[in-house]
Amino acid sequence: MKTINFAVLGCGKIGTRHAEKLNGTDYVKLVAVCDIVPERALALSEKYVCRPYFGMDDLLKDPSVDFVNICTPSGLHAEHTIRCLNAGKNVLCEKPMALTLKDAKRMVETAKANNKLLYVVQQNRYNPPVKLAKQLIKERKMGEPIMCIVNMLWNRDDEYYKNDSWRGTLALDGGTIYTQASHFIDLMLMFMGKPKSLYSLMGTKNHSIEIEDTGVISVEFKNGSFGSVSYTTCATKKNFEGSVTLVFSRGTIKIGGEYLNTIDYFSVDGFDSYQLEETDSLANDYGTYRGSMSNHDKIFKDIIEKQNNPDKPTNLVFDEDAFQTIEFIETALNSARTGKVVIF
Ligand SMILES: NC(=O)c1ccc[n+]([C@@H]2O[C@H](COP(=O)([O-])OP(=O)(O)OC[C@H]3O[C@@H](n4cnc5c(N)ncnc54)[C@H](O)[C@@H]3O)[C@@H](O)[C@H]2O)c1
């Protein structure tokens, strides 16, 4: 099997995780890292024995790089992705893909124009409970969709927003709905299909930041089912709940745990029990807070799989599947600003 050469652009918290997981995965090789803060690039390049770059122009001239993993602040994803694609590189872009639908679509169009691959990190799709629910829905064991309830009641303290200057800014962070809730919205859309209309309320309730930290969204899907998303980073002291509850005509499942890693409730007609796939993944641990499941190695494995077996289904997220989350978020922000129900 051919080894794919990766470079990591942005050597901060998640870039470090990409480097670590690339290092432990077969048939992928970390050949370069790049950060405008030289000591961050140097630290990773020394640890994983690869080339350090301190600016994108130099990275993009490196002919050995097949894929660039975009791990820079969210508001830079579109510009960085498009520059990589135009330079002939494939891209794995961290979530959120972009902060506007226009940018997300431009990214997909640029990939197509250059005949390059563009995948977006939505690593919760690899969580065993998520895979189980997706399979049961696909096999029509759950019956007809009725409702999906998303609760993301997380904690991000003032230090979180102060430690990195881009966090909490409109231009580079975009808001809690982009930075944290997008993980959950991606899953809701995967389970329930295309949205028809929504109404939302959003506000900045308990942080001194430019963006909203709390919101509620009511959705109707094209198939007639309903959804709700309640999200906040104002839960006290630590993450309290992150859950997706699916109510279908023949099954109810609540996916919960600290990072969507457990089934908290399971009742599906014809099933006395269920079997979860084994996993060695834990939550991304950033010291003062914990994020989503660290499944990045599974994305790298799927990229290898796709290269060798293009027709085999994977959990990779690309094209419309990728930008539908951004479209949903932009529509929810629009509803919150106008106070109106917005039709898709
Ligand atoms: N999938 C997940 O669970 C997950 C988890 C954490 C972060 N993320 C996403 O990853 C992105 C980065 O988040 P983070 O927490 O690692 O942030 P971070 O601030 O820790 O790291 C960002 C890095 O990018 C570097 N950078 C900025 N501009 C650059 C440029 N022009 N060229 C090269 N490097 C540049 C910064 O110096 C910094 O080292 C965000 O979009 C975030 O939403 C995803």
Describe what this molecule looks like in 3D.
This protein is of the alpha/beta class and 344 residues long. Helices cover 34% and strands 26% of the residues. The chain has 10 helices and 16 strands. It has an 8-stranded mixed beta sheet. The protein has a 6-stranded parallel beta sheet with strand order 3-2-1-4-5-6, with helices on both faces. The protein has a two-stranded antiparallel ribbon with strand order 14-15. The longest helix has 20 residues, at 319-338. The structure holds nicotinamide-adenine-dinucleotide (NAD). Nicotinamide-adenine-dinucleotide binds next to helix 1 and strand 15.
Structure at a glance:
With 344 residues, this protein is α/β, with parallel strands linked by helices.
Spell out the key features of this protein.
globular, 34% helix, Rossmann fold, eight-stranded mixed beta sheet, 344 residues, six-stranded parallel beta sheet, binds nicotinamide-adenine-dinucleotide
Rg value: 20 Å
Q: Cofactors and ligands present?
A: nicotinamide-adenine-dinucleotide
Q: Percent of residues in beta strands?
A: 25-35%
Low-confidence stretches: none
CATH topology of the largest domain: Dihydrodipicolinate Reductase, domain 2
CATH homologous superfamily of the largest domain? Dihydrodipicolinate Reductase, domain 2
Secondary-structure element pattern, one letter each: EHEHEHEHEHEHEHHEEEEEEEEHHE
Overall structural class, as computed from helix and strand content, comes to: alpha/beta
Distance between the termini: 43 Å
Largest sheet: 8 strands, mixed
The proportion of residues forming helix, as a percent range, comes to: 25-40%
Q: Can you tell me the number of structural domains? A: 2
Summed up, the helix count is: 10
In CATH, what is the class of the largest domain? Alpha Beta
- The strand order across the widest sheet is 13-12-11-7-10-9-8-16
Overall 3D form: globular
CATH architecture of the largest domain: 2-Layer Sandwich
Summed over residues and divided by their number, the pLDDT gives a mean of 96
Number of strands: 16
